[in-house]
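From the pipeline queue, job 12 of 40. The input is one protein chain; the requested action is below.

Action: predict structure.
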Amino acid sequence: MKAIIYCRVSTNKETQETSLQRQEEELIQLARQYNFEIDTVIKEQASGYELERDGILKLLERIKEEQIGAVLIQDETRIGRGNAKIAILHCIIKEGIKLYSISHNGELQLSESDSMVLKIVSMVEEYQRKLHNVKIKRGMIRAVENGYKPEKNLRNLGKNSGRDKIEVPIGEIVRLRKNGLTFSEIAATFKGFGYNISKATVHRRYQEYMEALEE
């Protein structure tokens, strides 16, 4: 299993660089203990109350790749503090990623209060997703009634296999992404039409499209 190591200190003081180095060394040992393959080491100096952190944003993007299975941290406060911690933990857990910490010498054990808040957040998000999917379903039914043919929009998907590049309808991916669907949900939508495409492929094509726009 591949794992990401995430280290954070709160200030830019030079003395904190030693702490960052120590976190990295201890987390490398933790990875070896559990036979994890280290995919990426992310280190940053920023407040845990902030969400707009380059390191944490990189982490949240990286865990969307299918081969990533775990994130290694010193303790839960390295991920964040206050509401930022809950939000980030939720993003990580809903991707099916396991958290391992030095403080627990293994898989992270959340406090009772944090677990309760995360359950509430998950329940609310699930009902929001169901409402969103109901709207999409009704919209698709109306579109089909008005002549929309999804098999034509997605006609190229799934023709190639093996090492051939899958021809993905990027317009459909962008549209669904703008509607708030995750990469997993977009992949599931395509599979619902009988096309085999992974979350990683959807994410990669979307990234390629966004990078092309920036050029």
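Job complete. Residues 160-165 have pLDDT under 50 and may be disordered.
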